[in-house]
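Recall the central idea of this unit: under ordinary conditions, the amino acid sequence of a chain determines the structure it adopts. In this exercise we apply that idea directly, starting from the sequence alone.
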Amino acid sequence: MATHARRLVQLLLPFALIPSVLLAQGSAAWSGCRADSLSTYNCAQYYSGTVSLASELKTANGTETSSVLATVTGGRVTCRVKTPETAEFEAPGMLAVEHGSNMTSGAFKIQVWCPEAAGERVTRHDAPSIETYDQRAADYATLEGKDAHEHPNTDAANGVTGTEVITWRLRRSN
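Accordingly, the structure predicted from this sequence is:
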């Protein structure tokens, strides 16, 4: 009988310890991150700050500049957009801050959706206006960085040059 009880304890003990092992591996601080229509692991509701895109394209006809500034408060986004074709306007936007893990640091990606014209509304089916691609954070509580790169419409053969600069500064707000 004692042998049977000992075998039962040996069999059940690992299962009893699994929840504590899993909790030790994850971070309760980010437990509200969830799958939604924008991301498979969206943590946007935790952040406040800004994400911006400044774009300059030089052609034989002159220089075109545009900018998108997304101000984030508790995951809610207000976009200020200025393009060569439109007057500056403000509108609601969407944000996805995707952590690469449920730990406190690691890979992350930021995506911001803002309308292209006043009166438009963005949807999850639209392409993001700003995307940081794969970045790394020493601590998910503060995401800061800058990415300056060649404008995607640059065409050296036709004398078209340009740059885009993406800047992000998001801090955990709750």
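Helices lie at 2-25.
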